[in-house]
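WARN retry 2 of 3 for item q-0093 after timeout on previous attempt; input resubmitted unchanged.
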Amino acid sequence: MRNKQKIDICLSPSIIDLFDLSSKKVIIIDVFRATSAMCVFLNNGGNQVIPVSTIEEANKYKACNKINDYRYLVAAERNGAIVPGFDLGNSPLLYHDKNFNGHALVITTTNGTLAIEKSKELASGMLLASFLNASAIVNYILSSIKEDVLIVCSGWKGQVCVEDLLLAGLLSKEILLDNRFYANSDSVLLANHMYDLAKSNLFEFLIDSAYRKRMNLDEDVKYCLQKDIMSIVPIWAQKNIEPFSNSGYFYLV
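OK item q-0093 returned
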């Protein structure tokens, strides 16, 4: 196994400290709905996605209508709802079928941006994945990545989410078809088997999931479960964005 690349899955950001991220490429997933919404924004012409961990940080960007020639849209979501005072949240339907040329999106969410925050300083790079761009991410990993890969599931407030596990299963299963990769963890085994059980009808498989019971957002769910409707690969640039520090952004290859 020494000459092979390892793929593993972190089921929740609450256990990310158990992994050594220093030499790994990290794939961030938050199926419902953060990474899906970010991908839609970038696919529709957006220049950058700047994730921030707090509402206070989002408000700082909101006060700066324009930085570095980009107009800023600022989105904030907590517990599934748009934060009062903001016009956008993490629903991909809010970004669907719009033109975002010349715009950057600043976004904070309950789970997805937390997973990014916990990964960005330690990983050797990050990608954003959703069902919407799953095959593009797999193809990029197989063609361009020489490091080990860790899929980080954003979950819900530290708990495991089935929808993230399903996407992790799809990604890891496809990557493992290339014999340069291997896996030896039960999280990969679990995710692969779970995806096999669900793949014929993801929407119905998730009917009793915590997310669908907690949220009345079936149109968002259906949208987020579409597979390969775009071919983008959002990658991370760890870079200060004046006048803010300790920031960075996702952009398209």
